[in-house]
Design goal:
25 strands, 14% helix, 3 domains, Lipocalin, 7 helices, Lipocalin-like domain-containing protein, eight-stranded antiparallel beta barrel, single chain, mainly beta, nine-stranded antiparallel sheet
Length: 396
């Protein structure tokens, strides 16, 4: 009887284990297993690609069993999930059928049986490539969450007060100008051709993802191909993907980038596109009454004399108010996409209206917000979220 009981117990245990394993979808992570496990968040755009290849909204999670989920965190929906096997820098995917969100640009054909190439420039950076489109992801962990609000988490923005720079100081409008845009953990390079059909329009060249820094030496992960019309100081960058160290030195009104003995300076005291046929020019020195939060706010576009860039000032009262106080912010206008990006100026706004003002709190939350716009004659239409504002412009 005792032997029969032990035999029955053993068979039951094996059946339970077999049932548990039978429902589990698992893969193999190979030699990189421990470093691959975790949640990875998308950074910027695909390497060497413009913002039509954005991945800021993506996360890629891998557990120790080799199951993965590619997720659209903005919509809280799954793009792709299943299991993967890692070998020789490649993921072989076995995916489930159900998906509720679109795959990122260039990855439309990704699915079961597909192969993703992967590279880890550092232990907390993961580059995934499919069909020649490469997205960079940064590993999420408790320490990164704790330091995300710390200034050390944004080394590029700490380097310089402004986040948009130009290689022309305004003295020569006939030559090609390069625009450098700085973000928390990457930077993008554009060119502005004064002879282009649309004057002042910036053309994307490539991007640089921050890996590490020491003093003025910044190491980036980047991508270069022969068709890119890069400035001369970057012509010696290796083709394809590379880790490259660039010296970056910032002064009050300029920042100089150097690579392999060549350098180029960028300036923040000019704005390009502010020409007689541009929307920036048409908006400069115009004013309007903007009604929101149940109040009229006299508002105006003009150049900030300290930065020589286009600013929007919104006051706490009507045009005839006695000594109105205001909030201020720099505006970047993209005529091709019909968007105005608002950059809240905390110092200037606090000095004028104070941080306790409701107006200050409203526009502080709008920092780096993109507003859709149309401009026809003296009629400016702004769209923010689901609200549309129709504004009549006058001379300021």
């Amino acid at each position: 009887m005792k032997k029969n009981f032990l035999l029955l117990f053993t068979l039951l245990l094996l059946a339970l284990v077999g049932t548990g394993c039978g429902n589990k979808v698992s893969g193999s992570l190979g030699k990189d297993g421990a470093e691959l496990v975790g949640t990875w968040n998308g950074v910027g755009n695909a390497l060497g690609r413009d913002d039509s290849y954005s991945c800021d909204y993506l996360s890629f999670s891998i557990d120790k069993e080799g199951t993965f989920t590619l997720k659209d965190i903005a919509q809280n929906k799954t793009c792709l999930s299943g299991s993967l096997s890692a070998k020789s820098g490649k993921f072989s995917l076995d995916t489930r059928e159900e998906t509720t969100a679109e795959l990122p640009s260039g990855w439309d054909g990704l699915g079961s049986g597909s192969t993703l190439s992967y590279d880890m420039p550092t232990k907390n950076k993961l580059v995934l490539t499919y069909d020649n489109v490469s997205y960079l992801f940064e590993k999420q962990n408790d320490s990164s969450k704790q330091t995300s609000k710390n200034s050390s988490a944004s080394p590029l923005l700490n380097l310089a007060e402004n986040d948009v720079w130009y290689s022309n100081d305004g003295s020569n409008e006939d030559k090609t100008t390069y625009e450098l845009s700085l973000y928390d953990n990457y930077m993008e390079l554009y060119s502005i051709d004064p002879k282009a059909a649309t004057e002042g329009e910036a053309t994307f060249l490539t991007n640089f993802f921050y890996l590490s820094s020491r003093d003025n030496e910044f190491t980036f992960y980047t991508y270069k191909e022969a068709s890119m019309k890069l400035p001369d100081f970057l012509k010696d960058l290796p083709d394809g993907f590379s880790k490259s160290t660039i010296t970056m030195k910032a002064e009050d009104d300029s920042i100089t980038l150097s690579y392999n003995g060549k350098s180029l300076s960028f300036y923040n005291n000019v704005i390009y596109g502010l020409k007689s046929d541009s929307d920036s020019y048409r908006l400069c020195d115009t004013c309007f009454n903007w009604k929101f939060d149940s109040s009229d706010h006299f508002s105006y576009f003009t150049m900030n004399p300290d930065t020589n860039t286009l600013y929007l000032y919104v006051t706490d009262g009507a045009e005839d108010a006695d000594e109105p106080k205001y909030v201020a912010g720099e505006v970047h206008i993209n005529e091709k996409k019909h968007t105005i990006t608002y950059h809240f100026d905390k110092d200037l706004s606090e000095e004028s209206i104070g941080t306790d003002s409701n107006l200050y709190k409203i526009f502080e939350k709008m920092d780096k917000t993109k507003l859709s716009y149309t401009l026809k004659d003296k009629q400016l239409t702004l769209k923010l979220d689901k609200t549309t504002y129709k504004l009549t412009l006058d001379e300021y």
